[in-house]
């Protein structure tokens, strides 16, 4: 099956402010990332702040392009068309197939446009409908996201966070896109509202056959909505797997420690589970460690190889990918935390 | 140790008076860790600020109730006396370690300042103690770190510094208001571990305020759930999670996806939105969203926070129609 | 999260709220206007400016005498400038003209100058600011250096220089005072455009494939304009003071038949001991107008600030 969206060797870099005259340093936010989205799936992308997951999402929807600060290299192919190489005219037409839902429902809607205008604008801009037909489409969009048609006259500031997120979703759906990139769509919302929005996303995906790239720092939420999950650390993917398998049998030590750090709302579980507490902070992304980027914090770190050799994202078994030299040994328990191995 | 009774706090806003905290009772025993859980606007942070005497006056004001720390009434206490207690008896860790540290002062100086304000340490002793504290909270190379400025530290490190400052004068009560909300999971795990260690090793009492039920489950002995300015359920943490009785607590627990739960299912969600003060609800504030409300009573009369029938004595709930407690023997 | 204002739609159907409770929809401008209306000091300022505007428009009907008509001094034995009397409420000036009438006619010139000069400054400033803030790159660098240079020269000195270069005349005066404001408006608009450009709704507009011109005029500019509107109102007050200052220095309006508050003040030091009323009344007019504009400006600042919204 050919993928709907194929990202290959994607690199996003930003110039860092530095002393004038000297050669500028760059921050490589995304460094050689490749993956593919299949039609109709939800692909979760998790990682901690600064790992580059948002840059990756924004690069895919073509919000980072030359000139506006960042530089993108590599390929982002939507049904075979490389978006990175497109000129702005043809790109504007392709954009309708690729939409984004933003994190902050308070800054993602133009405060001076009424809800009706917000939803009608993209439809008009692409000449998809006009007159009564346009009105019908707007009402239909509102229905889809669980809002009443009466809200068309209202302005964003009159809504709560959850309702604004619904409007943001409706706007993303206005152009009938194939792919939606949802960048932390629920993390700004209260717990009781999060569930409403997640349910809506899942329902929309099922009903409309959407393909979703779900970017989040919240492992539980990603697990719940995703079919496959990729874990990102310092600009690179360290593990990709079907959601069930990733959470049941994580292969990369970073995934393992990330999962063990997530608080579970159950005191019994909390008391009995083993927790791996990673030492130290995430290294400065503008100067990532050599070799495996995780080796400075990895409880399984091996003295030589991890520092010297960059682990490639390889496939130890069907459907799974991991970037760790010792994934098998760790999984089989031949290598424990803080142990030096003589294997491999 | 800390006893709050009938606390009421009002905010005056452009759009009228808002009662942010509405009759909260709370009792903390020495050495316990108590969780205060709620969503934004539930009044949990305002309660903490009231204990600290840090309400933004004159917009906010305590209009009723009492806050007693070791038997001493804090409500109405003159500012000078309150200031002496802040830091030495009660200390607070805030959500955002970037804005709660002074950006133009080295962290060492900020710790020393606190120490000298309360303990009359001389400069040398204060410095020594600052190094000890930084070491305790897990900052590598503490004596070199004294000269660092907040912006040179990561978010997790800054939160460690905040904790060092808070515990500098060995307060009896430590209030942590969303201490890990701004942090990543792996850093959150570190900070929670540090808080647990602080309580254990230093014999402090901890009041942990958070919106995250997972955090409470891992840290607290007892948990209070707040909704619309009221405590709606209170129980030992294990009992609360095993048998949540208030329909709000139940709704919250069911609406969070769990790492060990089913996937891709439609999550149980609490419909609607928290009430606005202008709604003028007389009865239970959760009634408009409650799946189990009784037609007349819940709208008209606020249920008291009472012992839940059939549960342990410590399990209190403010609901006219609480969810039944599963048989303790069956679950044991 | 702030308290939700409207509880509408299918989301809240279990909310059990009375639909009549829902307020009519309000746009942001309308909303700001509503808040401005509740601001007493801003309304007081508006009242003051409205009064002056009325005086300016209706001057020929209200003023007891034409501004240039003289009451000959021969008829008024004694000092040069008689003080207030029943016939001349504000007294007479050194040429025997009715001071009340001249203050009323002066409102015309002074308000006209302040409005037109701010409009000139706004026009040039907005274009430069938008160029710097939206096009960026080299255009930004050039515009901003120009702005820096202009800001380095003290405002009044700059205006004096411009008047000297352009020659005397009402229009030249307006241009001079207006140009002084250009760097302020340009810099403000650039700054607020830069921050609006980064906001998610602009990103959303880009990802929806809207044309750059539409993004600029519908999404960026309207949201970047508030601080400039506030500054423009405050600049009207400054313009009045600047015009008065230039008038005082003899660089004001050269035509004596068209009275203007600054020029009226300019004549007074010679007679200050004997006729303080000549300084008093135009002075009061200037203070009131400046105060009025400042009150409106402060009110607008609060009304347009999203922090004060709901």
For the residues shown, what is the average pLDDT of chain A? 91
How far from one another are the termini of chain A?
A: 35 Å
Helix content of chain A: 25-40%
- Tell me about the largest β-sheet of chain A: 7 strands, mixed
User: How many strand segments of chain C?
Assistant: 0
Helix content range of chain C: 55-70%
Tally of structural domains of chain A: 2
Q: What is the name of the CATH topology of chain C?
A: MetI-like fold
Summarize the SSE layout with pairings.
The complex is a heterotrimer of chains A (344), B (332) and C (310).
Chain A: E1 5-15, E2 26-37, E3 42-46, H1 53-60, E4 71-78, E5 81-82, H2 88-94, E6 98-101, H3 115-125, H4 131-144, H5 161-173, E7 179-183, H6 191-208, E8 211-216, H7 219-225, E9 228-233, E10 236-242, H8 243-248, H9 253-261, H10 267-272, H11 305-308, E11 321-322, H12 327-331
Parallel strand pairs in A: 3-8, 3-9, 6-7, 7-8
Antiparallel strand pairs in A: 1-2, 1-4, 4-5, 9-10, 10-11
Helix pairs in contact in A: 3-4, 5-6
Chain B: E1 2-13, E2 16-28, E3 33-37, H1 44-52, E4 60-69, E5 72-73, H2 79-85, E6 90-93, H3 97-100, H4 107-119, H5 123-136, H6 142-145, H7 155-167, E7 173-177, H8 185-202, E8 205-210, H9 213-219, E9 222-227, E10 230-236, H10 237-242, H11 247-255, H12 297-300, E11 306-307, E12 316-317, H13 328-331
Parallel strand pairs in B: 3-8, 3-9, 6-7, 7-8
Antiparallel strand pairs in B: 1-2, 1-4, 4-5, 9-10, 10-12, 11-12
Helix pairs in contact in B: 4-5, 5-7, 7-8
Chain C: H1 28-37, H2 40-57, H3 59-62, H4 99-135, H5 137-152, H6 155-166, H7 170-197, H8 200-207, H9 212-224, H10 226-248, H11 261-266, H12 277-304
């Amino acid at each position: 099956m050919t993928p709907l969206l194929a990202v290959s060797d994607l690199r996003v870099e930003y110039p860092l402010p530095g002393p004038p005259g000297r050669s500028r340093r760059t921050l490589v936010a995304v460094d050689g990332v490749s993956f593919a989205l299949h039609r109709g799936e939800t692909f979760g992308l998790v990682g901690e702040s600064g790992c580059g997951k948002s840059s990756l999402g924004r690069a895919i929807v073509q919000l980072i392009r030359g000139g506006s600060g960042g530089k993108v290299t590599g390929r982002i192919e939507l049904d075979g068309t490389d978006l990175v190489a497109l000129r702005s005219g043809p790109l504007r037409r392709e954009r309708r197939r690729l939409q984004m839902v933003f994190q902050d429902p308070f800054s993602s809607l133009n405060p001076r446009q009424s809800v009706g205008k917000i939803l009608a604008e993209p439809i008009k801009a692409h000449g998809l409908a006009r007159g009564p037909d346009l009105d019908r489409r707007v009402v239909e969009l509102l229905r889809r996201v669980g809002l009443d048609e009466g809200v068309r006259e209202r302005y964003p500031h009159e809504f709560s966070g959850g309702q604004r997120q619904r409007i943001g979703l409706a706007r993303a759906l206005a152009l009938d896109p194939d792919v939606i990139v949802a960048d932390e769509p629920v993390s700004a919302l209260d717990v009781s509202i999060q569930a409403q929005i997640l349910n809506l996303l899942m329902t929309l995906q099922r009903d409309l056959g959407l393909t979703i790239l779900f970017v989040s720092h919240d492992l539980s939420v990603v697990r719940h909505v995703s079919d496959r999950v990729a874990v990102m650390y310092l600009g690179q993917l360290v593990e990709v797997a079907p959601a069930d398998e990733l959470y049941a049998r994580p292969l990369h030590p970073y995934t393992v420690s990330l999962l063990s750090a997530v608080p579970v709302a159950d005191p019994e579980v909390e008391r009995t589970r083993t927790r791996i507490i990673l030492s130290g902070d995430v290294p400065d992304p503008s100067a990532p460690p050599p070799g495996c980027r995780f080796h400075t914090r990895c409880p399984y770190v091996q003295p030589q190889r991890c520092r010297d050799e960059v682990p490639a994202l390889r496939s130890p078994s069907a459907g799974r990918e991991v970037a760790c030299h010792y994934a098998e040994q760790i999984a089989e328990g031949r290598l424990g935390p803080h142990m030096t191995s003589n294997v491999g | 140790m800390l006893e709050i009774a009938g606390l009421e706090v009002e905010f005056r806003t452009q759009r009228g008076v808002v009662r942010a905290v509405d009759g909260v009772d709370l009792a903390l025993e020495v050495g316990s860790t108590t969780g205060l859980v709620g969503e934004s606007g539930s009044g949990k942070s305002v309660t903490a600020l009231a204990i600290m005497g840090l309400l933004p006056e004159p917009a906010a004001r305590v209009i009723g109730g009492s806050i007693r720390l070791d038997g001493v009434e804090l409500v109405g206490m003159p500012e000078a006396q309150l200031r002496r207690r802040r830091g030495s008896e009660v200390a607070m860790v805030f959500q955002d370690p970037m804005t709660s540290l002074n950006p133009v002062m080295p962290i060492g100086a900020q710790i020393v300042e606190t120490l000298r304000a309360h303990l009359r340490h001389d400069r040398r002793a204060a410095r020594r103690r600052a190094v000890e504290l930084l070491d305790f909270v897990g900052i590598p190379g503490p004596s070199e770190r004294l000269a660092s400025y907040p912006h040179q530290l990561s978010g997790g490190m800054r939160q460690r510094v905040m904790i060092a400052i808070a515990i500098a004068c060995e307060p009896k009560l430590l209030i942590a208001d969303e201490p890990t909300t701004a942090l990543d999971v792996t850093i959150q795990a570190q900070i929670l571990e540090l808080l647990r260690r602080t309580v254990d090793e230093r014999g402090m009492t901890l009041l942990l305020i958070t919106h995250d039920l997972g955090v409470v489950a891992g840290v607290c002995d007892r948990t209070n759930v707040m909704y619309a300015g009221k405590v709606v359920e209170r129980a030992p943490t294990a009992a609360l999670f095993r048998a949540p009785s208030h329909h709000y607590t139940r709704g919250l627990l069911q609406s969070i996806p769990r790492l060990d739960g089913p996937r891709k299912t439609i999550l149980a969600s609490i419909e609607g939105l928290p009430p606005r003060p202008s709604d003028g609800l007389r009865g239970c504030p959760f009634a408009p969203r409650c799946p189990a409300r009784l037609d007349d009573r819940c709208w008209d009369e606020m249920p008291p926070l009472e012992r839940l029938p059939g549960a342990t004595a410590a399990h209190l709930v403010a609901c006219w129609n609480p969810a039944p407690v599963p048989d303790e023997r069956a679950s044991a | 999260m702030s308290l939700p204002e409207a509880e509408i739609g299918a989301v809240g159907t279990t909310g059990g709220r009375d639909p009549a409770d829902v307020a009519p929809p309000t746009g942001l401008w309308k909303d700001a206007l509503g808040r401005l209306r509740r601001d007493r000091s801003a309304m007081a300022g508006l009242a003051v400016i409205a009064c002056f505007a009325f005086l300016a428009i209706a001057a020929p009907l209200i003023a007891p005498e034409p501004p240039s008509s003289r009451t000959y001094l021969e008829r008024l034995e004694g000092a040069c400038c008689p003080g207030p009397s029943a016939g001349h409420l504000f007294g007479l000036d050194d040429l025997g003209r009715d001071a009340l009438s001249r203050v009323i006619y002066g409102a015309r010139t002074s308000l006209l100058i302040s409005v037109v000069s701010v409009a000139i400054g706004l026009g040039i400033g907005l274009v430069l600011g938008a160029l710097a803030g939206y096009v960026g790159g080299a255009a930004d660098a050039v515009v901003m250096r120009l702005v820096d240079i202009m800001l380095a020269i003290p405002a009044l000195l700059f205006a004096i220089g411009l008047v000297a270069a352009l020659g005397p005349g009402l229009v030249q005066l307006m241009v001079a005072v207006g140009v002084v404001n250009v760097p302020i408006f340009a810099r403000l608009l650039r700054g607020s455009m830069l921050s609006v450009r980064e906001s998610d709704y602009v990103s959303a507009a880009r990802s929806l494939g809207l044309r750059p011109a539409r993004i600029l005029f519908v999404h960026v500019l309207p949201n970047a304009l508030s601080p400039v509107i506030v500054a423009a109102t405050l600049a009207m007050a400054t313009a009045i003071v600047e015009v008065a200052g230039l008038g005082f220095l003899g660089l004001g309006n050269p035509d004596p038949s068209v009275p203007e508050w600054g020029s009226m003040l300019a004549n007074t030091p010679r007679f200050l001991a004997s006729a303080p009323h000549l300084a008093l009344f135009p002075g009061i007019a200037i203070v009131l107008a400046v105060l009025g504009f400042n009150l409106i400006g402060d009110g607008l600042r609060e009304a347009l600030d999203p922090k004060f919204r709901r």
